[in-house]
Amino acid sequence: MSSPTLPLIEIAGAPRERGRAYGEQARQQIHASLAYYQEAMSGRSLSWDEAIRRAGQWRPVVAGFAPDLLEEVAGIAEGAGLTQAEILALNARSELLAAAADIGREECTSFALTPEASGDGHSYCGQNWDWRAGAQQSVIMLRVQAPGKPTVIMQIEAGQVGRQGANSAGIGLNANGLKSPPISGLGVPQPFIRRRVLEAATFPAALHVIFGVRQHIAANLLLTHRDGFAINLETTPERHGWLYPDDGILVHGNHFQAFLPAAMAATYRPSSADSLYRVPRLAEALRAARNEDSSAGARKVIAAGLRDHFGQPESVCCHPDPAEQPVDRWQTVSSSIVDLTTGEYLVAAGPPCATEYAQLPWNLYDDQGHERE
Predict the structure, then answer these.
(1) Alpha carbon of residue 15 to chain centroid
(2) What is the number of alpha carbons within 13 Å of residue 109 lying toward its C-beta?
């Protein structure tokens, strides 16, 4: 297997300063992302030019929820030589695509493994992040150090302020797409919510973010803590549902597993039927981790589960479908295994069956005074 690595970008300081450094370092990837969405939405019900125009509607919403992140957006735009509307559009891409009924199928398979299910006694979390194959070139690893907040490490599309990752307070966040009825009015786009969750210094504070915000679209959020606790939240603009680990294992895909929104109950069909087998396939694979007494062994089991090809191309390890137009193809754009006990963050760029997991040079607990095992 090859060992390609994702670009590593570090930012620190005040919001505008962080954003400007982000935009300058990721300029190439941000421009590539804009070019991809422009191509992907050409001739669709909502063009990318119209999406950029509409993105401005979220400015007051974000300003009310996270004014510092709106300032970071302004810095990203300056550093990348783009407009704030273009960066807002990248951050609201799922909300815009949902409004255009153009998001396509939902993918991603997330997991949490608590100490009772891992033979080495560690807490793990991670996911196969599945998205449009054309966006692969814009995926980066971002490390954020903001004054007075935990250090955050994320897998992210360049130009976005938040997606999935973990922080120096020992909190991991993994996320999957869900479909629910459209919201009336405007809610906060997902990247801003997820960044706020990852900035939380305590687990209760992370939960308060999720339960206290009015979001724009549905999303599945799986939270894991290094102390061995995990909870899965199926969040919608109206209400949330939740799940806990079964024998220390918690896996989620892209269908409602805890509840069904009332407006969907009578007619619900998962938008991605493959989620119905991806979830049990990964959960069953992870059961073998309890028989491994070394971290190397436990991580090998997790990696094998994330490389599962049952149902390929729409498998846990997702591959582009040659029957689809190139611009519409999906794949695993990155895969992660995070050891929340030791702070080690492992990432595979692209489908993990073809890529070795590489440990990032950043430990979650660097400079935080936490003891590592």
Answers:
(1) 21
(2) 33
In angstroms, the CA 371 to CA 52 distance is 46
Hey, how many other C-beta atoms are within 10 angstroms of the C-beta on 91?
27
Instruction: Output the six-digit token pair for 272.
Output: 């991605």
What burial letters (b/e) apply to 214-237, b meaning 16+ CB within 10 Å? ebbbbbbbbbbbbebebbbbbbbb
pLDDT in tens, 29-82: 999 999 999 988 887 788 888 899 999 999 999 999 999 999 999 999 999 999
d(CA 354, CA 109): 18
In the chain, where the domains are located = 14-99, 109-359
User: What are the backbone dihedrals phi and psi of residue 328, each rounded to the nearest 5 degrees, phi first?
Assistant: -105, 0
Q: Decide which of 3.60.60.10, 3.30.390.10, 3.30.460.10, 3.40.50.1820 is the CATH code for 109-359.
A: 3.60.60.10
Beta carbons within 10 angstroms of residue 46's beta carbon: 15
By the 8 A CB rule, do 141 and 4 touch? no
CATH value of 14-99 in 2.60.40, 1.10.10, 2.60.220, 3.40.630: 1.10.10
Round to whole Å and give the CA distance between 82 and 326: 27
State both tokens at 43: 């001739």
What is the C-alpha separation between 286 and 173, in angstroms, rounded?
A: 19
pLDDT in tens, 307-345: 999 999 999 999 999 999 898 899 999 999 999 999 999
